[in-house]
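Troubleshooting: if your tokenizer reports a length mismatch, compare your output against this known-good record of 199 residues.
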Amino acid sequence: MRSSAVLILPLLLLQLILNCRKAHSLPDIIKIGGLFHPADDHQELAFRQAVDRINADRSILPRSKLVAQIERISPFDSFHAGKRVCGLLNIGVAAIFGPQSSHTASHVQSICDNMEIPHLENRWDYRLRRESCLVNLYPHPNTLSKAYVDIVRHWGWKTFTIIYENNDGIVRLQELLKAHGMTPFPITVRQLSDSGDYR
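Known-good structure output:
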């Protein structure tokens, strides 16, 4: 998933900018907020690279420059996350990317919806939400699970093994389990241990 974030983020920022270009009166500096948890170094790097790539290609924003406004937040502290979002809004960000944690993302989303600021996410979320200002780059679990069903059918697998780490993992595969149904061919389902030793 890390490599997909690196590839998708520049495309999303490009789409955001192209939508802004329709106004024909972009400011010289366009600030984009990024909320990252301490363990999200790869996401922050992808975000910074996306901003740098867009700034390097003068055909995208010939008269404007993107500036990344990075904030580090705790994954479980929605109060301070909200304060950081308000700080980003006070300096005039055009959009906010992140965070990854569901504990803070919902609060950030609520503020962005209220202020009508685009909120970009790249995280697994089982809920199908249609907020006006939210764009989630991560495929919805049902869509992803249906893709797994298509793979199994395409390859003609009659029996296979599902290995997952936590309960979220098995929820992500519910469509695959339903599609296999009550066939005479067994599916083996195994949860990995918490020890990290997967031998």
